[in-house]
Amino acid sequence: MANRKDLDPERSPAAAFGVLLRSLRDERGWTQDELGERMGCSGAHISAVENGRRSPTQRFAASGDRALGTGDRLVRQSRAVRHTALLEGFPEYVTHEGRAAEIRLYEVGVIPGLLQVPAYATALEADAVRREAITVDQANERVELVARRQAVLAARAPSPLIHIVLDQGCLLRPMGSPRIMTAQYERLIEFAARPSTVLQVAPFSMGARRPFSLPITVLTMPDRSLLSYAESSQRGHLERESAAVIPMLTAYHQLQAESLSQAASVAMIKKLRKGTP
Is the model's pLDDT at 208 over the cut of 80? Predict the structure, then answer.
């Protein structure tokens, strides 16, 4: 049990479910394989759920309740996982992001969370509520997470190296009032001035030379291992195998080479801030 992973139930609803499942299993003195046998799945599946790497389905939770004799306790806990506004894989990604030595991020459509001012984040999620894509509580969850992620990185010493490339559309899409956009442009300019950051814009003129069509993040961890995170409108995927991430890192370097320099990118942002595109 020396390698037993500590779990933080506050990390995400999936982590809270994992903590509950493990505690119920421990109470009965069962191994993960033994519980898996009773539930009709593998011990590896149990491990993935307990550690928050895989979200529990309602069927899985119901099977756990039957095997453990816990009524509908796991089913009720699983509802919080399914109702969260965060995509699968993202809560775990955030824990790695907070420890990364280097963060490389490419975004399309909107300013990424690490750079959003509070009013921009609020306006973005309010629009999702208006479209009935999420609830008010889920919108608040997202806005609060943006603030926590920024605070974690700001508190670190030394600061991680952060490279961000924004598709030009991120800058041109209005979000909220002109005052909000002015504050957002100022945040981008301030970010670019930090000693451990690089901010570039991928202009529309890149055309087919743009290697990514969806947002992508590549993390270099303190031990130099690589992780990547990408998402669609429905789900996110965290890649933990460095060998699979290396091609993405190579493509990211190509993206940086084709994008505007930081000086040219900041000049574009300043023009937008002044209202002179």
Answer: yes
Residue of 239, 89, 216, 127 whose CA lies nearest to 163: 216
| 170 and 210 housed in the same domain | yes
* Helix H or strand E encompassing 217: strand 216-220
The DSSP code for 5 is: P
Query: Which whole number is the average pLDDT over 101-108?
Result: 97
Q: Supply the range of the domain harboring residue 78.
A: 13-83
Q: Which residues pair with 216 in a beta bridge?
A: 106, 230
* Over residues 145-158, mean pLDDT: 92
What six digits make up the tokens of 247?
Answer: 């091609």
| 162 and 230, same domain (yes or no) | yes
Q: What is the DSSP string of 181-195?
A: HHHHHHHHHHHHTST
Cα separation, 235 vs 197, whole angstroms = 28
Report d(CA 210, CA 256) in Å as an integer: 10
Residues belonging to the chain: 277
Work out the mean pLDDT of the chain and round it to a whole number: 89
89 against 103, higher pLDDT: 103
- Please state the pTM of the whole predicted model: 0.70
Torsion sign, CA atoms 58, 62, 67, 69: positive
